[in-house]
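User: Predict structure, ligand S-adenosylmethionine.
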Amino acid sequence: MLPQRQARIEKTGNCDTIFFHSTVYMVEHIGAKFDREYANKYDTLSGDIGAYEVWAKTLADRLREHKPDAKAVLEIGSGTGNSAVVLLETVPSIENLYGLEVSDFILLARAKQKGATDELFFPNEAPAYSRQVAQRMQAHKDKFHLIKAAGEQLPIKDGSMDVVFMNQVFHWLEPDKALEEIRRVLKSDGIIVFDESEAQFDFGDTAEGEKIKREQAVDHPFVKSFQENFDHELLRRGTVVEKKPFRYLFTLDSLSTLLEKHGFELVPDANGSAYTTATVRYSLVQAMSFAENGARMRIMRQMPDLLKTPGVADEIVSATMENTKQEWGESPNNADGKKYGPSQAAFVARKKPATIS
Ligand SMILES: C[S@@+](CC[C@H](N)C(=O)[O-])C[C@H]1O[C@@H](n2cnc3c(N)ncnc32)[C@H](O)[C@@H]1O
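Assistant: Predicted complex:
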């Protein structure tokens, strides 16, 4: 039995890790205009670190384990289509994958589906990862249907989906509205497959949770050192950035209670755990590329004025990288020569059977 206590969704005040979450900028600030440069950085980062692939594969494993015959799948927040391609490749039962996305990232997903990234980027200037995903998508493109809409108002028929899938998305949704809608569109035996990163999900006081907190997340030595160096470089130039907190921090209890409120229950994984942990491990090269693109996305998102003076952003990024590389280079390697990166908790929830009173 999973613990079912009082819901506790807290606004967080101390997290400003931007690496995987900056697409909300697209939604809040860019709106209808497709920002080529931002999309380029986003997909370059996704390709360099490979984290979304690892997480999407873990979610796909859980999907197959709990719903091996899934035919109709809705992906909320399908972004630029990077998890969609993993689903299409690894879940052969899927007949129709509906990719729902609220931001203009959907334009890049559409271009990948058509195999035509040159429509958005000058010929051969699309990120290598965008082109690679576009190529992989060609074998499955007829099963993929893109819809521009918000996760809180699904333009989908009642009881029509076997699975609702979300990779790094749930924390951006208004949870009550979204879960009400998800419940409506799922078949009676339908499931939700989703994940939350250590920045949004508190792994708790278990031995595993302690390990994750020690080695990753905001306390991860690399992230810490990168943030400190970046802030230091900005401060030297008199720039102070207001830190934007994440909307939600879930605990296992609060998530279970929230799901229960909407008629869902978590389904343990094959090992009996309430969630499956998926951890990415970085080489030094991957970590540095991850940080460099993260720094550039952060400047574009939060400090666009810096871009007005040529060379300033470059100077900040190189100074940050130089210091971070020295510090990170000194931290010990794991046995395989790689160091830890961020973790996700991958969940499956199913509709609770109605009780007859
Ligand atoms: C971190 S990205 C993940 C993208 C994609 N799932 C992947 O794995 O590549 C989060 C995505 O959620 C989308 N999003 C944010 N709020 C949303 C909402 N209310 N409805 C639908 N999508 C939303 C963002 O535009 C962004 O594309």
